[in-house]
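lol ok so funny story. i was supposed to be doing the assay writeup but got distracted and ended up predicting the structure for this chain instead. priorities right. anyway since i did it might as well share w the group, maybe its usefull for someone
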Amino acid sequence: MTWKPKDLDILNRRIFVKHRDRPLSKILADFRNIHKRFMATVQAIPEKDIITKGRFAWIGKPALYSWLTAYASHDRWAKEKVRERFKSDRASTRTKSSTSHRRRS
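and the output, tada:
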């Protein structure tokens, strides 16, 4: 299946809306668990199967290695987005706390 940028934007938005109110600790715990399982699965695949083009029908002609590289790139992008959101939320919380504290003084 080939995803168009528009489709990915819609998918990413749905994921964001579904999980935006979850605590960061839960999101990170889920990520670490899924990543651990994913890495165990990849490590179980013989190297020959990873580098052979067309070996897996679900990705078409490229080798699994190409898909894994794209997955890693997306993973780095997503982690950076989570970090940005966390920093933004923390800054917003500090600003609200600071403003609230000034009002009480």
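The mean pLDDT is 84. The radius of gyration is 20 Å.
back to the writeup now i swear
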